[in-house]
Amino acid sequence: MGIFKKFGFGLKKTREGMTQRIEDVLGAYEEITDDFYDDLEEALIMGDVGMQTAGDIVAELKKRVAKNEVRNPKHAKMIISDIIADMIDGGEDMGLITIPSIILVIGVNGVGKTTTIGKLAAMYKKQGKKVILGAADTFRAAAIEQLEVWADRAGVELVKHKEGSDPAAVVYDTISAGISRDCDIIICDTAGRLHNKKYLMDELKKIYKVVEKQLPYADREILLVLDATTGQNAVSQAKEFMNVAEVTGIALTKLDGTARGGVVLTIKNELKLPVKFIGVGEQIDDLQPFKPKLFAKALFEDTGVTFADEED
Ligand code: GDP
Ligand code: MG
User: Fold this and answer.
1) What mean pLDDT comes out for the span 61-80?
2) Which one, of 5, 266, 255, lies nearest residue 111 by Cα?
3) Does the chain have fewer CB atoms within 10 Å around its N or its C terminus?
């Protein structure tokens, strides 16, 4: 499946929810009025865009409508798509050039960290890079086993310690192994227990110290994983994590299972964080580097992908 089809496929539910609501508003008015703008703003909020961002989009639309002397509400569709594309553009590429580079993956339990790491490992391996994983979510034995399964699936190496061991020590050993085995990319899982903020902060601080000491000049990304199905709650979660970690980007998972894709807009517009990857399924190749223009386009265009196409 081509990248546009995959994107379109992952956004199917968001298109059926948010986009459909927007199109209903566009179709319900003969001309652009204040009521039209109010209804549009409501449709955006219902689509999990968030109040502030919905207001920002409508304000920008008013400007562009006036500038281009648009009268027909249907013509506003392309403008809205452009506004969204501009809003979410920038910073989406991973800044990993040094060898090795390191990615720390953080986020609360169940959002899809381990799965995303497995998908990332497979993606980088496919690009010819040597990847090593560190099982630094030592809180539960199952978490370590699960990452091992993904390491096998992706065909990459893994460093692990026993359940309950010090996560920073796992990171230390993973970096050491990564350096001695000439790895390009080191990816570490973490436990991310947000309900104990002091503990999480201390744990992350300790991990940073290890990275700082062992890889002072290496490029690093701190990828916060958020579950799109939680909508605006994912945004509050991100705010909490931004208080304890220098988040460099977001991996937004489970877009395939939700109509709440509008949350992408809030993340970029309100948190000023770039979405770098989107998860569109549970399989190893169900991770897409985020492409803002493609995303905005796919929101408003049915790419006609069906399950039959998927099996091709
Ligand atoms: P963690 O606790 O943050 O490490 O989360 P896991 O990686 O264990 O994932 C939790 C659940 O979410 C698993 O059942 C995954 O299969 C599922 N999951 C992760 N990413 C996606 C995605 O993009 N789409 C769907 N549909 N499910 C996902
Ligand atoms: Mg996990």
Assistant:
1) 94
2) 255
3) C
Paired with 189 in beta bridges are 135
From the alpha carbon of 189, which atom of ligand 1 is closest? 4
**How much of the chain exceeds pLDDT 70, in percent?**
93
Q: Quote the ligand 1 centre to 97 CA distance (angstroms).
A: 28
- The residues lining ligand 1, judged by C-beta closer than 6 Å to any ligand atom, are 107, 109-115, 146, 225, 253-254, 256-257, 279-282, 286
* Distance of alpha carbon 245 from the chain centroid: 16
Greatest alpha-carbon span in the chain: 67
CB distance 124 to 155 below 8 Å: no
**Model confidence at 11, in pLDDT bands (50, 70, 90)?**
confident
Instruction: Check: pTM over 0.70? Answer yes or no.
Output: yes
Distances (CA, A) of 80 to 69, 73, 76, 246: 15, 11, 6, 32
